[in-house]
Amino acid sequence: MDKVEQIREKLRNVIDPETGINVVDMGMVEEITVKGDRAKIAFRPTIPGCPLITYLMQQVKSAAELVVKEAEVQVRGI
């Protein structure tokens, strides 16, 4: 399994508290790119002005950093 798929599997453990569904299955993770030991994750909240965006971004970053040394989460608009 490559690092992109490893990160995607770790992100399945990040649960949106409002829905109880993980961010991957909700379609919030748009793209994952890995170069060496760094990852960039394009993340789209379910609603504009999502009150949990900071929390979710930190959870996504922490989960990805179980696979790579450094992860950057980029929020994309709706």
Strand line-up in the sheet with most strands: 1-2-3
CATH topology: GMP Synthetase, Chain A, domain 3
Q: Give the SSE order as H and E letters.
A: HEEHE
* Overall helicity: 25-40%
Mean pLDDT: 93
Give me the CATH superfamily: Fe-S cluster assembly (FSCA)
| CATH level-1 class | Alpha Beta
**Overall form:** globular
- In DSSP terms (H or I, runs of 4 or more residues), the helix count works out at 2
By CATH, the architecture is named 2-Layer Sandwich
How can the largest sheet be summarized?
3 strands, mixed
The total strand number stands at 3
**Amino- and carboxy-terminal Cα gap:** 31 Å
What's the number of domains?
1
Strand % is 15-25%
Task: Briefly note the structural class of the backbone.
Answer: alpha+beta
Describe the structure.
The protein starts with a helix and ends with a strand. The protein has a single domain, classed as Fe-S cluster assembly (FSCA) (GMP Synthetase, Chain A, domain 3), CATH 3.30.300.130. Helix 2 (53-64) links the parallel strand 2 and strand 3 (70-75). The protein has 2 helices and 3 strands; from the N terminus they run H-E-E-H-E. The protein is of the alpha+beta class. Strands 1-2-3 form a 3-stranded mixed beta sheet, with helices on one face.
